């Protein structure tokens, strides 16, 4: 057997041959009345071969089952063959994804927006076992009265024993009344939180809980002032002050040791700063220093990485590297080194990521006392760092804790560390005692919290199991359903021509193959009114094998059952008759088409009925079909007037034509077949029908009016021939002229020159009386417009081509216009052209003096032969009102500058001078409603960019946009509009007269060093804020306890 060709398997089969074969068979059936099996095979396409993979399901082949399902590795956007992961999304999120990897892996905390600073501090406090146990020992009755303490204990209990990988911190944050959207200082948060907790815990009767804050975090210092003359300390030097953390300088210092030395350094007091010694009874030189008296079990260091810049009144972050040891010996720094053990082990490092002060991100690196492992707490994400504070490599929280190793006691460096916690190294027996107490899941929790956590864990694990069960059930259903579809479709084709088969609806089969749940089998859409299968439904059904049909019918029921011998004889015979009728109609229409062509060509005599000429021309252009179409209606609709009679032929669209009776009857029959109720559209008009007298009279009146208008317009064209032709009116000195608006003159020209169909639709100009009144201001009765500019060349004076404003006309033209258009001669605005010297320009005359174009300054005076420079002046009566014009122009300028979200264009010029094309003034006649073509909308290409700005945009904001687009730092930008330099950054674009569509250019001075725009943006955001509120308005700053009333 030869290999099948696949070259054209994706091409659609030509249907011409099939249509011809079908028509021939139907004609034969109509002629003989006999239907053979071969006829059935051909008409129902049964004899077509079984398709072997055309990709797109063929409607013309009932044996094609391709495209009903995707290929083996394919998928679809919806339904049964959607990607499995997308189908499972209907089950909702998998709760087991939030499961804590192991009991030894700490849990994270949710970030509610900008609460990473609080999360980091809470994780540091929780990981301190002594503090955690102290909080959890608080009595339930005390917790009921202290909301903050209650929520903190619940949070610690969840972090300790919950099965969740991260805990919701919102109840605690809401109780403190913190603003989720504002980043705060972690150091301030820790200080205020410990102070609040100290007050709350004072109500507890459990000694270990009551003083846990003081026992763990409180140390004491003294500020010692010593006289250099007698060597005695001041009386206040013996006073001790409590501290919860030591604030150390970082600027200019490289290590924790240097910062501690700086903190404890001795300050010399001399000169104006001398100290008054009580013993010496005089002001003497002295020294001042801080002495560490006692140190807490947990020693916190706050690194002062933020410095205040007086010049800019802003803060900057110091990002220099800072080293600190793994083990810190504080004995030599105590005022009394013999106090006892003062060796500290690094237990936590708080890190601020980012260069800005008021933004960035906080993370905490904390050591687990139990395992010795370091963990990174980044909100919900918790990562294992191994035995080093900053990790030997990156590992996530799913990694199993490795075996504890000795802490590297050499120094470590970090650029973003802002706080460190050190814990005292206790003797081995104490450490062993802690380990003996070991933390099981709930053994160290109070009973009320233990019950709550166990209940929550049980509910959560049950939800995980339920989801797992639903997922497995859904996966099994999907697999089973897909296997069923593939199996039945593989058995669906009927291999033999004579083999028994069943018809099935293609629409139902496609739904069944594409949906998870299928409805009952439905074949009603492929049935005819006789309950059989008509040949017209061949494209909507498939030929199914008995085996495949049995499986589908037994499972999905429904029906009806349509076998291979259920073809409809009645429909076949009717179809055959319709084909023959269609052939007859086509033959008749071909004949009538020739008659119509002869009628249009005036070759046909004996016309009896009128039809619309345009309608008949369109009828001839239409394709000949098997039956009348909707366009065949209304052959006389356009020649029938509103009064029901024949429209006069000279009316618009009423051209008509006489056609023979046989053509009229054919057209009339088709029109009623398509629209049986539309008798008016095919109303017969015999050749002797009279035209509507009423319509004829109306058309005659219109024709008379148009004739009279033509005469009026002809007369005005003759009177104002020079104005109409657009020839420049010759002007002379000391002659009287009149001014009229150029807009009115343009409208008059359009009206006078209109002809043909446009004559009645052209807008008529307004009367001159009202127009001239509008040219004068009410306040001063002076002129509100300026005359057009004048040009003098070769001794001839003429007007510049006007766009708007006032234009000069002769006195005769003015008088004629007054007669023709209702003007009053006395209300006219007269004008006279004069030459004036420069000195005379400064003198006030009785009438307004208007200086003209600069090109006229050097023209010689041809009147009196003087050589001095003169300027052409127009003296108007009434005078020009400069006050009102100034106010109007000012308002117009303000309107133009009051724009929003419009384009300006900025060019990056490599060099000091810009090209002439950029220096040319921009078009400032901005129309916000004008549509801009796609071709003229400029986009960022190379060294040119379009920016969306508003009139209120500041030059600073514009420079920031340019910085972001071209990478030129703000200080290096030389911004220009034309030749003008734009420097004032506080000014707005409106202040600098920058309009929409303006072209600016910028060059790079390269004086200042490049820097990240993010630093500028963060500083800008900080400067824009009001005075920092900090934690004002929260429970952290209340002077009273948060006790429930």
UniProtKB/TrEMBL annotation:
Comp. bias regions, Basic residues: 1-13
UniProt keyword annotations, A-Z: Hydrolase, Nucleus, Protease, Repeat, Thiol protease, Ubl conjugation pathway
Family, as annotated: Belongs to the peptidase C19 family.
Record region (Disordered): 1-23, 386-408, 919-942
Catalysed reaction equations from the record: Thiol-dependent hydrolysis of ester, thioester, amide, peptide and isopeptide bonds formed by the C-terminal Gly of ubiquitin (a 76-residue protein attached to proteins as an intracellular targeting signal)
GO biological process entries: protein deubiquitination; proteolysis
One Gene Ontology term, aspect cellular component: nucleus
Name of protein: Ubiquitin carboxyl-terminal hydrolase 26
Function: Recognizes and hydrolyzes the peptide bond at the C-terminal Gly of ubiquitin. Involved in the processing of poly-ubiquitin precursors as well as that of ubiquitinated proteins. Deubiquitinates H2BK143ub1 of histone H2B.
Keyword Protein biosynthesis: no
Domain USP positions: 107-406
Enzyme Commission number(s) from the entry: 3.4.19.12
Record domain Ubiquitin-like: where: 938-1000
GO MF annotations, alphabetized: cysteine-type deubiquitinase activity; cysteine-type endopeptidase activity
InterPro entries reported for this sequence: DUSP-like_sf (IPR035927), Papain-like_cys_pep_sf (IPR038765), Pep_USP48 (IPR033841), Pept_C19_DUSP (IPR006615), Peptidase_C19 (IPR050164), Peptidase_C19_UCH (IPR001394), Ubiquitin-like_dom (IPR000626), Ubiquitin-like_domsf (IPR029071)
Domain DUSP: 476-568, 582-690, 711-833
Organism whose genome encodes this protein: Malus domestica
Localisation: Nucleus
